[in-house]
Model the fold of this input.
Amino acid sequence: MAHKILAVDDENDVLLVVKTALETEGYEVVTAGSGPEALEKLAMQQPDLVVLDVMMPGMSGFQVLEKIRANPDSARIPVIMLTGLSDKAKIREALGGGTAYYIIKPFEFQDLLSKVSIALNPANPDPLEI
Done:
């Protein structure tokens, strides 16, 4: 059975790129365009991994990450932040908040795919730093 990934971004073109890249590798991809929608789909779809944008209107990726980690049903789901923010303080905040990886846009498909593969590998219990 294919791993299910929830991709969250308020930019439809980014969602399409992420979805296409992941589906090409055989993953099942569910998308959400906002933080609240992501949390709703997280509860309904129970994905194996979340690819999460940081800068979204209404609810930031950091707020979504906090809610994911606070819920016992989703606390152990790996989260990969995918964002245009390259600020070192934000990267530390993301990693400290429980993100497996922090990928800066624009990104290489292969970088995303390799980090998704590593994050989904149960033989890798401790996330690696970028």
Remarks:
- The longest strand covers residues 4-8.
- The beta strands are 4-8, 28-32, 49-52, 79-83, 101-104.
- The mean pLDDT is 90.
- Helices lie at 12-24, 35-45, 61-70, 88-96, 109-120.
